[in-house]
């Protein structure tokens, strides 16, 4: 299609599912901060006045030093929940974490670290395109920016009447595959009961306009803020939340395939997470090296087996080099075993709390190793073999 409209959504750190992702990733970070070889698969559920944690771990007894209650309460406090029905001081916390299955551990924890197998079978996808400077699909990228700017304003005290739970949705018009304007914007944000609908819309407006490229704002009739007219009851009081339920928000907003595995709550031995990061890293570098305008990569793994079972690369007709030519040579650039990925991207560090909200991709690499998979340091290596 030469002309079309594509839509993606994002959710804030205060969305019930994201509260769960943050708690689960903070558990991962706690374990990795004490032992970088810890194994963690933490799942969280939140509802009115309650947090339930379950899953499997294999590592030091971290809760001797930091109680699970303190970790959960501090996470909820940082998000900003002190409302009736979900308050960081009074919420009930149930911890059901237990030791990892030996049948799973045996395939991962081999004596020779380089032979460590994947923690499970599965398929992972990576994607990059030239729609934004960060080489991300534009609809999901701007959806994230809108909510992150609102959260920053709430945290720094500029917007004290906005509350943690919010969602955004950006519909962009495309011509010849290039986005050029928003056709519709939807933002729903929890707010103080003193605010009226028109007040909320005017508070939100500048954050939306300033998040989009100049001139991209949609027509007023297609700018929807709290379409039901009121959003006071929100967060875990309004909806139950679960870890790993926003996998499209976490990745490419539906603009690329998804293997189905969630990221949050998992240590990097789980290829659901590390494999997806590696696939994004390679796809982004291929596009950054101008080998393609758009690139999709699929990796597949089997439990206990170190090397990928298959590598698929599609450049969508946007390159003179065929995808199968790239896939045949990509192993010269990067070791795609779990060990190789962890080593190359330095994933055995407590870097995951920041990934839980506003997307795992399209973010700026941090000085403590966060978002290492967003670096474009493979450009020269890629150019040298093609």
Which tags fit this structure?
11 helices; 386 residues; flat; 24% strand; alpha+beta; 31% helix; single chain
Task: Please explain how this structure is put together.
- With about 375 residues, this protein is α+β, with helices and mostly antiparallel strands.
- It has 11 helices and 13 strands.
- The strands form 4 sheets. A 4-stranded mixed sheet has the order 1-8-9-10, with helices on one face.
What is shown here, in short?
The chain has 386 residues and is α+β, with helices and mostly antiparallel strands.
Number of strands: 13
Note the overall shape.
flat
Share of residues in strands: 15-25%
**SSE sequence, one letter per element:** EHEEHEEEHEHEEHEHEHHEEHHH
Helix count equals 11
Average of pLDDT = 93
Distance between the termini: 31 Å
Largest sheet, spatial ordering of strands: 1-8-9-10
Write the layout of secondary structure elements.
Elements: E1 3-11, H1 16-34, E2 39-47, E3 50-58, H2 68-79, E4 82-83, E5 86-87, E6 92-99, H3 102-108, E7 122-129, H4 138-155, E8 162-175, E9 178-191, H5 197-211, E10 223-225, H6 235-238, E11 241-242, H7 247-250, H8 271-288, E12 294-301, E13 310-314, H9 323-329, H10 338-345, H11 379-385
Parallel strand pairs: 3-6, 9-10
Antiparallel strand pairs: 1-8, 2-3, 2-11, 4-5, 7-12, 8-9, 12-13
Helix pairs in contact: 1-2, 4-5, 8-10
């Amino acid at each position: 299609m030469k002309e079309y409209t594509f839509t993606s959504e994002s959710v804030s750190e205060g969305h019930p599912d994201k509260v769960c992702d943050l708690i689960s990733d903070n558990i991962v970070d706690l374990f990795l901060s004490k032992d970088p070889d810890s194994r963690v698969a933490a799942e969280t559920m939140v509802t009115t006045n309650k947090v339930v944690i379950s899953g499997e771990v294999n590592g030091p007894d971290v809760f001797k030093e930091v109680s699970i209650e303190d970790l959960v309460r501090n996470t909820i406090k940082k998000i900003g929940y002190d409302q009736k029905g979900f308050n960081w001081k009074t919420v009930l916390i149930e911890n059901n974490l237990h030791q990892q299955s030996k049948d799973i551990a045996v395939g991962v924890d081999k004596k020779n670290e380089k032979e460590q197998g994947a923690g499970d079978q599965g398929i992972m996808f990576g994607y990059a395109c030239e729609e934004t400077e960060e080489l991300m699909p534009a609809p999901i990228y701007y959806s994230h920016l809108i909510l992150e700017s609102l959260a920053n304003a709430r945290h720094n005290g500029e917007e004290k009447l906005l509350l943690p739970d919010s969602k955004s949705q950006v519909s962009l018009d495309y011509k010849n595959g290039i986005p050029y304007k928003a056709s519709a914007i939807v933002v729903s944000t929890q707010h103080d009961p003193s605010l009226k609908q028109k007040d909320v819309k005017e508070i939100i407006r500048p954050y939306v306009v300033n998040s989009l490229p100049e001139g991209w704002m949609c027509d007023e009739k297609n700018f929807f803020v709290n379409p039901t007219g009121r959003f006071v009851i929100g967060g875990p009081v309004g909806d139950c939340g679960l870890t790993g339920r926003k996998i499209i928000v976490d990745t490419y907003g539906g603009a690329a395939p998804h293997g189905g595995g969630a990221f949050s709550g998992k240590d990097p031995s789980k290829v659901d997470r590390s494999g997806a990061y590696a696939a994004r890293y390679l796809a982004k570098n291929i596009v950054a090296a101008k080998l393609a305008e758009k690139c999709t990569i699929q990796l597949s793994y089997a439990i206990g087996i170190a090397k990928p079972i298959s590598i698929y690369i599609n450049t969508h007709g946007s390159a003179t080099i065929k995808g199968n030519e790239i896939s045949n040579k990509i192993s010269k650039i990067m070791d795609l075993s779990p060990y190789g990925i962890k080593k190359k991207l330095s994933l055995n560090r407590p870097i995951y709390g920041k990934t839980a909200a506003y997307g795992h991709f399209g973010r700026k690499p941090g000085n403590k190793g966060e978002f290492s998979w967003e670096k474009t340091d493979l450009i020269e290596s890629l150019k040298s073999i093609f």
